[in-house]
Amino acid sequence: MPKHEFFVDMTCEGCSNAVSRVLHRLGGVQFDIDLPNKKVCIDSEHNIDTLLETLKKTGKNASYLGEKSAQ
Fold first, then answer.
1. Predicted TM-score (pTM) above 0.90
2. Which of 62, 2, 69 lies closest to 38, judged by CA?
3. How far is it, in rounded angstroms, from Cα 35 to Cα 16?
4. DSSP structure string for 23-71
């Protein structure tokens, strides 16, 4: 599955919980949230636009950073 990295303007645990909620609701995703660096890495077959729109449902600024290479 492609792994995509997004910036999400999260400032607290509540923000990261909101991101978790919308991604779980979308389904078909595995993700890691890096709250200190305001990044979300998502493994998903969904397209980038769908993922970005889903992240924006939190009311936070979100942007696509690029594909994350497997390490």
1. yes
2. 62
3. 7
4. HHHH-SEEEEEETTTTEEEEEESS-HHHHHHHHHTTTS-EEEEEEPPP-
